[in-house]
Specification:
The protein is of the alpha/beta class. The protein has two domains: 140 residues, Rossmann fold (3-Layer(aba) Sandwich), CATH 3.40.50; 91 residues, OB fold (Dihydrolipoamide Acetyltransferase, E2P). 30% of the residues lie in helices and 31% in strands. It is built from seven helices and 15 strands. The chain has a five-stranded parallel β-sheet with strand order 2-1-3-4-5, with helices on both faces. The chain has a five-stranded antiparallel β-sheet with strand order 10-9-8-12-11, with no helix packed on it. Strands 13-14-15 form a three-stranded antiparallel β-sheet, with no helix packed on it.
C-alpha cells in the first residue's frame, strides 16, 4: 500500500511570498502537497479545519489574527513552522524543540534543514507536540512588542465547531454566571450567540473604547448596534438594538453616556 503524500497549508498575507515558498518547497520536498493557502490568520484557521493538513507554514505577522495566534488553534494537531522576518520570536520556540521556523527572505538551505526535520518526525510517526503554553507566551510577547492593540476576533465553541467571531460583528456581551454571552450577526445575517469562559471585565479591557461601552455591571454594547434608547424609572434606561428584539439594561451609573444622544 502506498503511503499517503504529506500535506501542508501556507499562510502569508503577501501572495508573492506564498508563491515563493511553494516553489522552494517543491524543490526541497517534491512529495509534499500544498493543499491550502491563506491570506490571514482567520483564513488559515478555516482552511486548517476544512483540509486538516499535516503541517502548517505560518507567517508570524498577518492582519487580524497573527500566525502565532492562529497556531494556537492548530497546536497538537499539526506540525508548525513559523515564517518570519523577526526571528527573535521563532528562536525561543525553536530552541525548545517544539516548533520550527524559517526567516524571510526564505533561503533554500535553511528550508532544506527544516524539511529534513519534518520528514524525520513523519517517518518516526511522532505526534505533533502540544505547544499551547509556548504559543501563548509567544503571542503575549508579540502583543507587547506591537504596543497596545484592540481585540479583533473572539474564539467561541458553537456546537461541535469553533467559530472565529469578528469583534465588529458583535452586538453585545453579557455576563452569564461563570461565562460571557456573546451576541453577534455576520453582515445582515441572523443573530447568533455563544458562551465563552473569558470574563467580561477582561474582554472590555481589550475592546475599542470608542465602539464598545459598558452600560451595566453585566453588559457591554457595541454603539453601532444601537437603534434607540428609552428612559426608565429611577434613572435607568433600556437599549434597543437594530433588527433585534433584544433589550439591554442601562444602569444609573452609566446613564450619563447617553444624555446627549
Amino acid at each position: 500500500m502506498t503511503a499517503r503524500a504529506p500535506t501542508a497549508l501556507i499562510a502569508d498575507d503577501e501572495p508573492l511570498l506564498r508563491k515563493g515558498l511553494i516553489r522552494l518547497l517543491a524543490q526541497a520536498w517534491p512529495e509534499l502537497s500544498v493543499i491550502a493557502q491563506a491570506r490571514n490568520g482567520r483564513e488559515a484557521v478555516e482552511q486548517f479545519e476544512a483540509q486538516q493538513p499535516d503541517m502548517c507554514f505560518l507567517d508570524v505577522h498577518m492582519p487580524g489574527l497573527s500566525g502565532v495566534e492562529a497556531a494556537r488553534y492548530m497546536a497538537g494537531r499539526a506540525h508548525l513552522v513559523f515564517v518570519t522576518a523577526f526571528d527573535r520570536y521563532a528562536v525561543q520556540a525553536f530552541e525548545q524543540g517544539a516548533l520550527d521556523y524559517v526567516v524571510k527572505p526564505v533561503e533554500a538551505a535553511r528550508l532544506t534543514n527544516t524539511v529534513a526535520r519534518l520528514q524525520e518526525r513523519l517517518r518516526a510517526a511522532q505526534p505533533a507536540p502540544d505547544t499551547e503554553a509556548l504559543l501563548e507566551r509567544l503571542a503575549t510577547r508579540l502583543r507587547k512588542d506591537a504596543g497596545p492593540a484592540t481585540l479583533q476576533w473572539i474564539r467561541a465553541s458553537v456546537g461541535q465547531t469553533v467559530r472565529l467571531i469578528a469583534v465588529d460583528e458583535i452586538d453585545f456581551l453579557r455576563s452569564d454566571e461563570k461565562y460571557t454571552r456573546v451576541a453577534w450577526r455576520a453582515g445582515e445575517g441572523k443573530p447568533s450567540e455563544a458562551l465563552i469562559r473569558t470574563p467580561l471585565k477582561e474582554l472590555l479591557a481589550q475592546l475599542d473604547a470608542t465602539q464598545f461601552v459598558q452600560v451595566h455591571r453585566a453588559v457591554v454594547v457595541n454603539l453601532r448596534a444601537i437603534s434607540h434608547i428609552t428612559r426608565g424609572v429611577n434613572e435607568t434606561a433600556q437599549i434597543h438594538l437594530k433588527g433585534s428584539s433584544e433589550v439591554l439594561p442601562v444602569s444609573r451609573n452609566y446613564l450619563h453616556l447617553f444624555r446627549q444622544m
